[in-house]
Amino acid sequence: MSTDQSLMERYKNMYFGWKTVFAGAVIACWGYGSWYYGMSALFTPLIAEFGWTRAQLSLAFSMRSIEGGLEGPFGGMLIDKYGERKITIISTIIACSGLIALLYVTELWQFIFVWGFVVSLGFNLGLYDTVNSAVSKWFIRKRGRALSFVTLGGGLGGPIIVPIMAWLIFNYGWRSSLMFVAGSTLVICLPLAWFFMKDGPPEKYDMLPDGDTVIESDNPDEINFVEEYNFTPKEALKTRSFWMMLIAFMLSGGITAMVTMHQIPYLIDLGIDQIAAAGVLGLMATMSLPGRVLFAWLSDRIGERKTLIISYGMKAFGLVVFVLARNLTHILIFVAIYGAGYGGSIPVSTSLRASYFGRKAYATITGYTTFFGAISNVAYPIFAGWCYDVYKSYTFAFTVITGIQVLAMVFMYFATKPIPPSVQPV
């Protein structure tokens, strides 16, 4: 009894931000596993039923990035204005309504509209933007650690959810799988958002970031609180740092979209069966898990920018292996190297935005990067599908993006931390 009371007391006294981290990790696990990673398993069944080409289906799936780009700035402003909990709940309902509507599509344009502008609105806004915004606003000193836990949840979505999706599709069809995803999303995400998320930063609820307290004392060493300069969106857009960071994110971000979308059909072309191919994709997400923790730890010591350059280098090297791969052994080497680099870049990129530009307008500024980042997220997968349709091979496409990944390293090198306007020399 005393042990149970002790656990309940510890839970009651836990800083609410860590409860948000837990909720965000579970939401990210389900959202990324079912919507981002898992939907690659729909590629082959949809082509088989409707006769669409890989380029056409790549365009359809890429609509999630177009929607995310168009919605990004406006969605970010809505999050900053109305709060993460409200937007998460509304967006979850939108996403699930879209998943049910997908059961009745018969034409490509219908799939593009429902998937790209209804389902993706819900998942982009409510199961991604709001989670990162909530965690970034409730932490400063411990932000990297908190975000690494959330992205660990997202990475676990690959090995946990993708095999389930592939098994459901193989045994019951893609429509039954989407019904399962819709129902499970409602059951999982709505309660977590309602009980473990707040609408705004901790100061709104008489708390401080990181669970800190301010001690009334004349001794500055006894004040346990850290603050940072909050750029307005207009101020952020005027800095060189924002644009160097944006270009680096844009060049690198679309590569992962292309890899995750075309990896399963590529492996099937190598002679690997569909279930095993889905398992390899899940394994890449698994290999990203230690990268998420290690690179978040590294960023606290050498800074986010240098850490991202290292992770980008690992992604580039992994892509070289992927281009030269001829069997499963080569693929597993690629998975280990690329997975760790890709995983490490996720929490560090999120932390870098908050570290550079502050918490107050975090979601809005993130929305701007999402808007421009949608270009590569759409272009790269379509480019890969077009290359396959024309050349019956992905080699040229993956060779090109390997060079682009190296270029992203260059722009990140120049994305130094901006100087707040209040301290800039006149």
Mean pLDDT: 84
Helical fraction: over 70%
Note the run of SSEs as H and E.
HHHHHHHHHHHHHHH
What is the SS-derived class? mainly alpha
What's the alpha carbon Rg, rounded to whole Å? 21 Å
Secondary structure tally: strands: 0
Oligomeric state as shown: single chain
**Percent of sequence in beta strands:** under 5%
Shape descriptor reads globular
End-to-end C-alpha gap:
65 Å
The largest β sheet comes out as: none
Uncertain runs? none
Q: How many helices in DSSP terms?
A: 15
Describe the fold and architecture.
It is globular and about 60 Å long. It has helices at residues 2-13, 16-37, 43-50, 54-82, 84-101, 108-138, 143-172, 174-196, 233-237, 240-269, 274-302, 304-324, 328-357, 362-391, 395-413. The chain has 15 helices and no strands. Helix 4 (54-82) packs antiparallel against helix 14. The protein is mainly α and 426 residues long.
What's the short version?
By secondary structure, this protein is mainly alpha-helical. The chain is 79% helix and 0% strand.
What attributes does this structure have?
globular; 0% strand; 426 residues
Q: What's the topology here?
A:
Blueprint: H1 2-13, H2 16-37, H3 43-50, H4 54-82, H5 84-101, H6 108-138, H7 143-172, H8 174-196, H9 233-237, H10 240-269, H11 274-302, H12 304-324, H13 328-357, H14 362-391, H15 395-413
Helix pairs in contact: 2-6, 2-7, 2-8, 4-6, 4-14, 5-6, 5-8, 6-7, 6-14, 7-8, 7-11, 7-13, 10-11, 10-14, 10-15, 11-12, 11-13, 12-13, 12-15, 14-15
